[in-house]
Amino acid sequence: MGGVLAGMRVVEGSAFVAVPLAGMTLAQMGADVIRFDRPQGGLDAHRWPVTREGASLFWAGMNKGKRSLAVDMSRPEGQEIVTALICAPGPDAGMFLTNLRARGWMDYPALKAQREDLIMVSLTGTRRGEPAVDYTVNPSLGFPMATGAEGSTEPVAHVLPAWDCIAGGMVVNALLAAERHRLRTGRGQLAELSLKDVAAAMMANLGIVGEVLANGVDRPKAGNALYGAYGQDFLLACGTRVMVVGLTDRQWRGLVKVLDMQEAMAGLSQRLGLDLRAEGNRWAARKEITAAFAPWFAARTLAEVAPLFDAAGLTWSVFRSFAGAVREDSDLTTDNPMMAMVHQPGIGTLPVPGSPVSFSDLERMGPVAAPVLGQHTEEILGDLLGLGSGQIGRLMDAGVVAQGIRPAVRAA
Amino acid sequence: MGGVLAGMRVVEGSAFVAVPLAGMTLAQMGADVIRFDRPQGGLDAHRWPVTREGASLFWAGMNKGKRSLAVDMSRPEGQEIVTALICAPGPDAGMFLTNLRARGWMDYPALKAQREDLIMVSLTGTRRGEPAVDYTVNPSLGFPMATGAEGSTEPVAHVLPAWDCIAGGMVVNALLAAERHRLRTGRGQLAELSLKDVAAAMMANLGIVGEVLANGVDRPKAGNALYGAYGQDFLLACGTRVMVVGLTDRQWRGLVKVLDMQEAMAGLSQRLGLDLRAEGNRWAARKEITAAFAPWFAARTLAEVAPLFDAAGLTWSVFRSFAGAVREDSDLTTDNPMMAMVHQPGIGTLPVPGSPVSFSDLERMGPVAAPVLGQHTEEILGDLLGLGSGQIGRLMDAGVVAQGIRPAVRAA
Question: Which of A49, A69, B47, B101 is geometrically suited to a Cys-Cys bond with B207, CB 3.0 to 4.6 A?
């Protein structure tokens, strides 16, 4: 039943994407992850998308399988509770993830004074501690100006909070690496990273900084073409759009063969003086290649091309809308062992993913619903902090903590 | 000197983004990561971006700080060398990351027979083992149809290989989690994930699957607007475009105050009957808000607005091209402690990032150049596999392995 991280306990003080995702990633591998929020909910309590009734599908998505403590951190008693929870004893505890602004009582030195070997991972917007979100990091580094139709000068931001998702993975990396270090040395530490640095590093890792400096050029917008090799979208006779990829030599040869374009490509190669076996030459000749391929696609329907492409093992896909994907893609349904139908209080019953990773030594953990805000307040105060029911009752009456009540389930 | 993962040894058989990025993430935290490739280079040896001379800036970016073994895996002796390396003894070894198609000799059962507690992380395209890349996963799940100008029906793919980058982080998560499990139980295992599942899970985690099912609607394209709250791009008088964000209440109030739009927003709120303190109402009123704000921006230059925005602590950014970011953004220069000037053989000297994470118990590791293909073949065969120089010489003569020679550094 336990996951690969069974026994590990992590406390999370967070909002929005990266740190909540990090905590959930750990929870979905079996860690006991406790997220604390103020009783009225964190900054992301109502983050879109929401249901028509205003329940946050985002919050439910990003906090699955965690326990929730509702506590007023503006009160000294609330700060003491959170500190005690973060610094609780035990070799598998004493780990804290946060992207909240570290105030005096919640910064690393203050917490370390309570538990010397604490591991804390802190994500900020920029390395200087300024606020930043995906929507600002992305334009500042140039991605929207390289996205969209060739020839356009309008910036196009991507809708996926990609930097946040990447940073969330980094937060998990840092925590697990620091815990490994603590197991060997007994020493805890503060691991710090920023959303902007994660993005800046990735931009350089992908060769984009080098491309500017070594070649002295800006990458132009190139629509949906696969950069630096061949890959293009085509409209079929049935109106469906497909993406086909000729990145590797095998993919390229497979594509040309299925389209029966060997002679056409040989002629094109000769005419342009470009050996199309070299991926960069396919990029240079992409418009001519696309012009040669387009009539083939325009004359066929998806029902005709799909079996041909699949039989040949091509790398390709259809373009769908989100709703089309939910309707048609079995990877988003319970056909996929990653997914299960889960009742999410206040929202309904939906196909919900667990961890994308399956571990052969362990049963795959099914997805677990997100908690209601404060759902586990009593059990956390009682079982983990050893408070008696009288103490807990007084804290509740005083509004220092709150117990959440699960709303009724409605049909989706 | 050593990083947080000092002592750990990981073998990587990979190409392209996700698994190379995973290996590099480990190397940049101090692990000894050995990537093996065939002597002519892997499928990504020439991946774009490239220099004018054809050196892959991508490969150099994704393999920093690793050791490189060049070995012909089509030969039985080559397979024996790779197997011995993956299954080498030691509590901190016996870890293998791959996205290569598992052939008989390199699949988990065959390797496990050589080392019972092997940890192997295997990334495939889809959960069925089909090929998939970011360029195909993304259209299949609907992101390009939700990206781009409002009203447009053209799909716009993002240019960042976001799913690959997210999957790379997951590969690291899985490895570190499995190693933690092995330390406690003595048991190794196979961790499996697919690029498509990583993307499908994230789509659901972000609430997008729930949005389709609960609300029965497809999210429309909304240009560069921040979904579900307020955030918009504006053109300044100087021609610079900026993004401003009013996601949280604090951000929204700060923005309205700096623009001196309190009365205008109160009037708009009344006229529309929408309390703009609720983030969803800001989304509903975004066009009216943008219309009210636009003249303010159109009348001012960046030199005027930047100090105002920074003084107020707003969440905002300018839009740059890649070249503009490299030129103007100090986070991409050695002003940033994450970055250092590094000589990359065959490319030149460039600002190069190390890990975005700094660990307080350890000195920050500086970035290390990527190896030349096969640069460490001799030392790996000698030091790790205990082969004598005669044996190594014979393997080289037979073409089973190859030693790389670092090319001269040219000026960038």
Answer: A49
